[in-house]
Amino acid sequence: MVSPALKIIHINTEKGWRGGEAQVYLLLKGQIANGHYPVLACLPESKLFAEIKKTNLCPLIPFSCRNEWNIFSLYRFIKSAKQEKPDIIHTHTGHAVLPGLFLKWKLKKPCLFHSRRVDFPLNIISKHKYLACDSRIIVISEGVCNVLLKCGVPKEKIHIVHSGISTELIDAVCDTGKYRQEFDIPDNVPVVGVVAALTDHKGHKYLIEAFPGILKTFPDTILIIVGTGELDKILYNHAHRLGILSNVRFTGYRKDAKSIINIFDIFTLPSHLEGLGTSLLDAMLRGKPVVATSVGGIPEVVLNAKTGILVPPKNPDELGNAIIELLKNSELRKTMGQEGKKRVLEKFSAEQMVSETQSVYIQKLNHE
C-alpha cells in the first residue's frame, strides 16, 4: 500500500551531535526521498541545525528550549509550528516530549510519537510525560523496550525500530596511511579503538584499565579513543596514572570519526548502559570485529562468537582477554569482520529504519 504524503514535525533538543542526531538526519533524508514533508525544530546553536541549514535538507524551526518548562519558549515554538499543520509530531529527546505534548494539545489532530534511544529507567515525571495523550513510543532495541516495560509503560504503546546507518559510502577508498601518520602509529602496529561520547555509561574507564594487561602480551598496541565529553580530563589522567599514556591517542571530536575506524584492527564498546550503539554498526559495516559488553541493545547487534565477542560490563579483565584473543588470531578477526558487515547490510540499513518508522506512523494513523 502506497503511503500518503505526510507533513511531520520533528523536535530535537540536543546541542551536540551524537548517535541520536545522526538517526534524525537519516530519517529526515529518507522521508524526503519517500515523498513526505518533514520539518525540524531544534536549537539554533546545535550541530544538527547547522548541518540541516548547510545542506538545505528541510525547513527549520529555531527552538531555543534549554528549559522545557519555559512558557515563553513554548509559546514561540507552538506559534511557529502550528502554521505547518502537521499530520505527525515526532519527538527525539527527553526534553522534547513536553513541547510535543503541548503542540499536540494545541492542534488536536496530529498523531504523537516519541523516540527513545537510551536504556535508562524513566523517573516518575518522564513516565507521566511519555504516557500522556494517545502517543506511541518508538524504541531502538528490545533492550530499551524491556526497560520501559519494567517502568510500567503498556506494551501496546511501544514499537521497536532498530537504528540504521547509511551504507552509501562503504566502498569509498580511505587513506589509512594518513591517519597512522597523524596519530604516530607505525605500520603493522595493532590498533584497538572506540568511538563514543566520553560519558560514564560508555565505560571508557574499564577499557583503559584493561590496557595494561593487553600491553603485557602486545606491547606496541595503540588505543584510539575518538569522542569528547565531560570525562575528557578524567580519562586522560587515568591513562597517565596507569602508565599507558604513550599507547593511547585521544582524538577529541572528529567529523571523520567513521573514516578513522578504518585503521582499527578491533573496535570496542565497553558501555554499561547502551540503547543500541550505532558506532558498532559503523565499525561492522567496515568489516571490523567487535569486542563489546552484553548490555542493552548490544546483543541485538553483535552476535557473540560470530561477529564479535561479548563480555560482562565493568570487567576490565574479561574485556582485555577478549581483545587479546582477537589480536592473536587474524583469521578470526577477518571472519568476524565479514560476518558483521553482512549482518549490518541485511538488518541495519537507514532505508530499513525509515521504512519501519513509516509503518508505525501509518498503523497509528489508520486507527485514528
Please specify the SSE layout and strand pairing:
Layout: E1 7-12, H1 19-33, E2 37-42, H2 47-55, E3 60-62, H3 71-81, E4 88-91, H4 97-107, E5 111-116, H5 124-131, E6 136-139, H6 142-150, E7 158-160, H7 176-182, E8 191-195, H8 204-217, E9 222-226, H9 232-241, E10 248-252, H10 257-260, E11 266-269, H11 278-285, E12 290-293, H12 298-301, E13 308-311, H13 316-327, H14 330-347, H15 350-365
Helix pairs in contact: 1-15, 3-4, 8-13, 11-14
Pfam families: Glyco_transf_4, Glycos_transf_1
Protein name: Glycosyl transferase family 1
Organism: Candidatus Schekmanbacteria bacterium RBG_13_48_7
- The CATH superfamily of the largest domain is identified as Glycogen Phosphorylase B
Spatially, the strands of the biggest sheet line up as 3-2-1-4-5-6-7
- Could you tell me the number of beta strands? 13
Order of helices and strands: EHEHEHEHEHEHEHEHEHEHEHEHEHHH
**Overall average pLDDT:** 94
CATH topology of the largest domain: Rossmann fold
Beta-strand portion reads 15-25%
How many individual domains? 2
Q: Which shape, going by the Cα principal axes? A: elongated
The parts where pLDDT drops under 50 for at least 5 residues are: none
How much is the radius of gyration in Å? 21 Å
Give the helix proportion (percent range).
Answer: 40-55%
* Largest sheet data: 7 strands, parallel
The secondary structure category is alpha/beta
Query: What CATH architecture of the largest domain do you see?
Result: 3-Layer(aba) Sandwich
State the end-to-end distance: 18 Å
Instruction: Report the CATH C-level class of the largest domain.
Output: Alpha Beta
- Helix tally equals 15
